[in-house]
Design a protein that fits this description.
The structure is a single chain. With about 350 residues, the chain is an alpha/beta fold. The chain has eleven helices and 15 strands. It has two domains: about 1-110 and about 295-350, P-loop containing nucleotide triphosphate hydrolases (Rossmann fold); about 125-290, Glutathione S-transferase Yfyf (Class Pi), Chain A, domain 2 (Up-down Bundle). It is about 45% helix and about 20% strand. The strands form three sheets. Strands 2-1-4-5-6-7 form a six-stranded antiparallel β-sheet, with helices on one face. The chain starts with a strand and ends with a strand. It binds adenosine-5'-triphosphate. The site of adenosine-5'-triphosphate has 18 residues, from helix 1.
Length: about 350
């Protein structure tokens, strides 16, 4: 999948921008603060409805502007996606019709983002890794989003009932469906981790990153492996009532990552960055298996993040892969790429 048109207005310091990106590597170079990352941020905003570097999307809107707009066209399908965001909220359009569902944008614009904060996938909380798995499942299994939303609703209902000290019959009525939802989510994630592991092994081999050994992935279900979730919910209901929330289930699951028996979380920041790159590129590969799902790759500032041999390995890998990549750096590309120069928010082809 690739974009052949991108237009951005009212985003941070960027001047109104109309861009015709190449299907392969697009390299944006320029000094610090020029606006390079803001281009990636705008694409991410279109695909996911939020920024990856600011919790408040309103911050992304240009100072003194009323709204921002981002519009893009998919080169392969011709789909046109547009989003407008102002202080009151956002409006989306897909192929000329109004669309308020972020999931539709995400489905048409799959992307993989590698940025300086990506190591949080390794050393951040388990919710990061669950989200990492769930995003892939949203793309590959149509029904997963619904199953996940249903489970999230049941979890909220059970937690509310626990907090309110609702009678046992309320919990008895909720739990069978909660368990069915937990089963669906657990099975889908577990299978995904199996498939992802094969891609991790391949990508790690191709990149040749210097890690202590092969990266291993294991899905932990959110309850002890030697117990049944149904038994735990029943037997530990009193403890759950004391705490006011459900202590076991897929909302507490973990994706355990290790290298030669060492937990990835204990490794150096630099190694964690390499592991994050391997995982994210494996995610890209897994999604690229279903042609129209092949994500865009957004890579923010890899030159500062990776040492020279690892950067060369990454760029070499990207050059071999048929992927549309969007890369930012303060220097020009050392490999063949379509180059753009960014300065004071102005983007010009080089
Ligand atoms: N809401 C806003 N309105 C106008 N300008 C903004 C707004 N928010 C941030 N800026 C400015 O926009 C620029 C954003 O730069 P951005 O982070 O995209 O640059 P960059 O080229 O990626 O820089 P670096 O190499 O330092 O990461 C900064 O100069 C910042 O001061």
């Amino acid at each position: 999948m690739s974009l052949d048109r991108l237009s951005i207005r009212g985003v941070r310091n960027l001047e109104p921008l109309e861009l015709s990106p190449a299907p392969g590597m697009n390299w944006f170079s320029g000094p610090n603060g020029a606006g390079k990352t803001s281009i990636l941020e705008a694409i991410y905003l279109l695909a996911r409805g939020r920024s990856f570097r600011s919790a408040r999307t309103a911050r992304v809107i240009q100072k003194d502007a009323k709204a921002l707009t981002v519009v893009a066209r998919r080169g392969d399908t011709g789909n046109r996606l547009g989003v407008e965001r102002d202080a009151d909220g956002w409006r989306g359009r897909i192929d000329g019709r109004d669309c308020q569902r972020i999931s539709e944008f995400a489905a048409l614009l799959p992307l993989t983002l590698i940025e300086p904060g990506s190591h949080a996938l390794i050393d951040g909380g388990p919710d990061r890794r669950r989200q990492f798995l769930d995003w892939q499942l949203f793309h590959v299994e149509q029904s997963y989003l619904l199953a996940w939303q249903r489970f999230a609703r049941l979890l909220r209902q059970r937690n509310a009932a626990l907090k309110a000290q609702a009678p046992d019959r309320v919990l008895d009525a909720l739990e069978p469906e909660f368990l069915r939802g937990a089963e669906v989510i657990g099975r889908a994630r577990d299978e995904l981790v199996g498939r992802l592991s094969a891609h991790v092994e391949a990508v790690q081999g191709e990149l040749g990153f210097r890690l202590p050994g092969p990266l291993s992935l294991r899905y932990r279900s959110g309850h002890p492996a030697d117990s049944e979730l149904a038994d735990l919910l029943r037997e530990q209901r009193a403890r759950d009532r004391e705490r006011g929330f459900t202590r076991h289930g897929p909302h507490r699951a973990e994706l355990a990552l290790a290298c030669e028996g060492r937990a990835a979380v204990e490794m150096s920041r630099g190694q964690q960055k390499l592991i994050a790159v391997v995982l994210l590129l494996a995610q890209y590969r897994l999604l690229a298996g279903g042609q129209s799902l092949a994500p865009l790759l957004l890579v923010d500032d890899p030159v500062s993040e990776l040492d020279a041999p690892h950067l060369a390995a990454l760029l070499d890998w990207l050059g071999r892969e048929s992927v549309q990549s969007w890369i930012t750096a303060t220097s020009d590309s050392p490999v063949s790429a379509t180059m753009f120069h960014v300065e004071h928010g102005r983007v010009s082809p080089q």
